[in-house]
Amino acid sequence: MFGAHPSYPDRQGFGRRSMDLNSKEHYAFILYQISAIKGMVESQGGRLNHVKPHGALYNDSALNEDITRPIYEAISAIDEDLCVYGLANTAHEHIADKLGISFIPEAFADRKYHYDGTLVSRSNSAAILENTGEVIDQVMALIHHQEVVSIEGKKVNIPTKTICFHGDHVQTLPILKEVHKTLLEANIEIKFCN
Q: 130 to each of 66, 71, 126, how far by Cα in Å?
């Protein structure tokens, strides 16, 4: 399976900075980015399966249906069979339901959450879990109990069908190897997405 990971048109900030855009602009840049990757995937004999907003767009669209709606309308216009990955119980899920788009709730293995289920901003030094044991604990809590411990110390329900690992810090590969080993030892089936 191949997925598109569109972001704000923020090249210098790698899509991690919010931008104040109107609905038409949101629709247009999503239409452009997803159409481009869909064309590339199909030119190589593949099929685009899902879309997951990236960075600030992911966080902003989780909290604001006015941002989410044009994004999801663009996704649906491109291919009605595309599903969307996002945070459960947020605008990601609500707009997907309203528009009839298949929604896959996801959780993060290596990110801290607030008590309301939103992600801690990367501007906070505690936002990213880099300790292998902490990541394994969070993954196992998500698998067995659909919950994490928030940065405020409270248990938070995080309904999920897929778990994301970020690949942009140096410890990702060693952590993934240990998580993989732990899951195999616990006889937990692992399915990967391309």
A: 34, 31, 9
